[in-house]
Structure formats: C-alpha cells, structure tokens
Amino acid sequence: LVMEALNIQLPKSHSRADWARRPLPDAQLRYAADDVVYLARLYQLMHDQLLEHNRLNWLDDDFSELETPSLYEKPPEQMWLKVRGIQKYKGHTLTAIQKLAAWRETIAKESDLPRNWLMKDDILLDIARQAPDSVQELSHIRGLGDKTLRKHGDTLVQLLKQAATETPVPLPPFAKKAKLGPAQDAIIDLLTTLTKIRSEELSINAAVLAPRKELEKLLSDPEHSSLIHGWRKKLIGQQLQALLNGEISMRIENARIRLENPVSGQNSG
C-alpha cells in the first residue's frame, strides 16, 4: 500500500529477525518505525480520495462494528473455546484445558503479550493431556520454555490439581460448515462473476466488495450476510439478489459480459 500510494519501497530485510532480543539494534528499530511513520500521510490521502468519490460514509457501518468492545473483550473463562481441537477432549482433560486457557489469557493481558507467545495451543493441550503433578514433571513438556516454567510452574501444577477434582464446562454444539454441492458452487461462480463486473465499475477490490464467505452466506443464510446491509446492499447486494431471483441475467457481447435488465440505477457492465 505504501508503495502504491506513496511510491516508497519499504525494506523486508528484518521480517524474520529475532524481535525478542533486547536492546533491539538500530536497524530493527528503523524497520519497526516504518510500520507507522507513513500512516498519517496514508490516512490523509485515503480520506481525501473517499471524500472526493462520496464514499466516506460507506465506512461508517464497518468502523462502528470494529469499535464494539465485545468484539475484543472476551472473558478469560471463555477463551478455551478458541483452542484448536478441543472437540475431542472431555472429562478432567477438558477441565484442565479450560483452566489453562483462562490462566493464559489473564497473564497474556497483564503482560501485554499475544497469548501464543506465552504458551502455544499445542503445548497447552500437551500439559492438559499429561497432567503432570509436579514442576519437575512439567519440565518434561516439550516446548515449554524455562522462563515460563520458573515463573509459572507452581501455578500450572495447582491448576491441573484443581482440574482433576472438577467437572468441565460442557462443550457447545459445533456447527459443521455445510459443504457446497456442484450446483451451489456453480451459483457462487456466477455471483463471483457479477461481483467482478461491479468491482471493476466501482474500482473496489472484489474481495472487499463481496468476499466469498459472504456470497456463500447469501445462499445459505441471507439475513446474516453483510451483502444485504449497509453500503454493500446498494452497490452489489441488490444485484446479487436480483440475479438469484432470475430478475437479471448475463450475456457476452463484444468479448465482454453484459447484464440484461440490470437493477435500476446501476451500470450494466
């Protein structure tokens, strides 16, 4: 984006550097600063472009959703639901996962660290499965860092002992994503074609205008698709619904796809 908007090429030389070392070398500090030093210029440029094209209000719905605190502030006691692969565990092992995940989230917030920097999911699951009853046994868990062991080993062992005497919170029903059949895949392809036509007309990335998951939702659960709400409804959602309802169709003319009977007020490709 910086290159496209400001014609400035940012270096990638330190993307895989050791960012945990202290103090950071000057080169890494400059590399990190590049993440933010151009943001003010980018903001003003993008703001002016949106204003020029009367699109600034399009962002209101998207931004208001991102400003919802509940989107980010999940109780630590619920964070076990984000651990991958929990569906296959039960009993005291599941209780241990729940306690360890809550502990990890609390410590990560207090330390201002990503939770997986503190303890990765696979290590958390190993601890819950093996349920070591001493710090010495805990030290045999592969991947558990010495620093974490020294600082939190006693607490982890106590959590495991508590888990051994408690009943887990029941697993919620996990809805499996319905696999699309050939006919539905073909419909999605058709909707994607219409999306590409509109994205070209509007100069908006097709993945932003109508992501595939939203196209699938439009088929299976339309009321919860963002394509029939907010700015997307007028720009693409109404046409997509019209296509699904047989109110418009497509044809090829002069090597271009054209819309027959397009929704009133919108271009025909």
**Shape designation:** extended
Assembly state here? single chain
Q: Strand-residue fraction? A: under 5%
CATH topology of the largest domain: DNA polymerase, domain 1
CATH structural architecture of the largest domain:
Orthogonal Bundle
Strands, total number: 2
Order of helices and strands: HHHHHHHHHHHHHEE
Output the structural class: mainly alpha
In DSSP terms (H or I, runs of 4 or more residues), the helix count works out at 13
Helix-residue proportion: 40-55%
CATH class of the largest domain: Mainly Alpha
How many discrete structural domains?
3
| Low-confidence parts | none
The value of Rg in angstroms is 25 Å
**Mean of residue pLDDT?**
91
Strand count, sense and closure of the main sheet?
2 strands, antiparallel
Task: State the distance separating the first and last CA atoms.
Answer: 28 Å
- The CATH homology group name of the largest domain: HRDC domain
Major beta sheet, strand line-up: 1-2
Question: How would you describe what is shown here?
Answer:
This protein is mainly alpha-helical. Helix content is 54%, strand content 4%. A two-stranded antiparallel ribbon has the order 1-2. Helix 5 (91-111) packs across helix 7 (121-130), helix 5 (91-111) packs across helix 9 (146-163) and helix 10 (182-202) crosses helix 13.
Q: What are the salient characteristics of this protein?
A:
single chain, 269 residues, mainly alpha, DNA polymerase, domain 1, 3 domains, two-stranded antiparallel ribbon, 13 helices, 2 strands, 4% strand
